[in-house]
Specification:
The chain is of the alpha+beta class. It has helices at 32-63, 73-90, 104-111, 113-129, 154-170, 198-214; strands spanning 5-13, 16-25, 94-101, 136-141, 144-150, 173-175, 178-180, 184-191, 220-222. The chain folds into 2 domains: 5-63, no CATH class; 73-225, 2-Layer Sandwich (Alpha-Beta Plaits), CATH 3.30.70.270. It contains 6 helices and 9 strands; from the N terminus they run E-E-H-H-E-H-H-E-E-H-E-E-E-H-E. The protein has a 5-stranded mixed β-sheet, with helices on both faces. Strands 1-2 form a two-stranded antiparallel ribbon. Strands 6-7 form a two-stranded antiparallel ribbon.
Length: 234
């Protein structure tokens, strides 16, 4: 039947409209008493909706880096554990990239920490631009990033890592009128060849990252090409 009455109630909380409750009915359905009851229902619905939004925001804040909007290290470690368990069951494979912004301390010392923050956001944006929907990126700590490449072996991982490296090198970042040259070194490790458990895989990628920095920076090195286990450079 065609509705003859319509009642719209705003869902408001803290002076902000977050939704609307739209009701239809026959003529005379929404008398004064009914409207008062529905206003109470709308107020309760607004509170419940707002609480749900706050929970979502809190969950997002707990798993994402506030500066870059990428996953944080804690969330990434959990995702890495899941990836290892999943591929171990299914007999698949995936790749791990560790990226580090070259000479980041010098950039901070020269231009200030706000410029360093701009470089981190810039790197995160260009990094995610090269990834597929199935891939995951995180700010691993400081100026270091980590990426999980789903269903990817050595050749594909190195190819994508090189695309990321080139895009960041060629990216244009201007801060306070100065063009900042940002490059990254990247270490590549593939599960399960370079490490069967999460810790071993991260260690392999970290060794490759160290080798990339030691060999001149702004380059990609695979864990399979690294034999020694040196300390991480400063």
């Amino acid at each position: 039947a065609r509705a003859e009455s319509l009642l719209a109630l705003a869902l408001r909380t803290q002076q902000k409209t977050i939704g609307a409750l739209i009701l239809t009915g026959k003529r005379g359905t929404f008398d004064s008493a009914t409207q008062r009851v529905l206003a109470i229902v709308a107020n309760q619905a607004a509170g419940a909706l707002h609480a749900g939004q706050m929970i979502d925001h809190a969950r997002d804040a707990a798993s994402h880096d506030g500066l870059t909007s990428l996953y944080n290290r804690r969330a990434f470690n959990d995702l890495l554990d899941r990836a290892v368990a999943r591929e171990d069951r299914q007999g698949g494979h995936f790749a791990l990239l560790l990226l580090d912004i070259d000479r980041f301390k010098k950039l901070n010392d020269t231009y200030g920490h706000p410029a360093g923050d701009a470089a981190l956001r810039h790197t995160a944006q260009l990094l995610t631009h090269q990834l597929r929907k199935s891939d995951l990126a995180a700010r691993f700590g400081g100026e270091e990033f980590a990426v999980l490449l789903a269903s990817t072996e050595h050749t594909g991982a190195q190819h994508l890592a090189e695309k990321v490296r080139a895009e960041i090198e060629n990216g244009r970042l201007v801060y306070d009128g100065a063009r900042l040259g940002v490059t990254v070194s990247i270490g590549v490790a593939v599960w399960p060849v370079d490490g069967r458990d999460p810790e071993a895989l991260v260690a392999a990628a970290d060794r490759a990252l160290y080798a990339a920095k030691e060999s001149g920076r702004n380059r990609v090195v695979a864990a399979s090409a690294v034999a020694a286990v040196p300390e991480t450079p400063v």
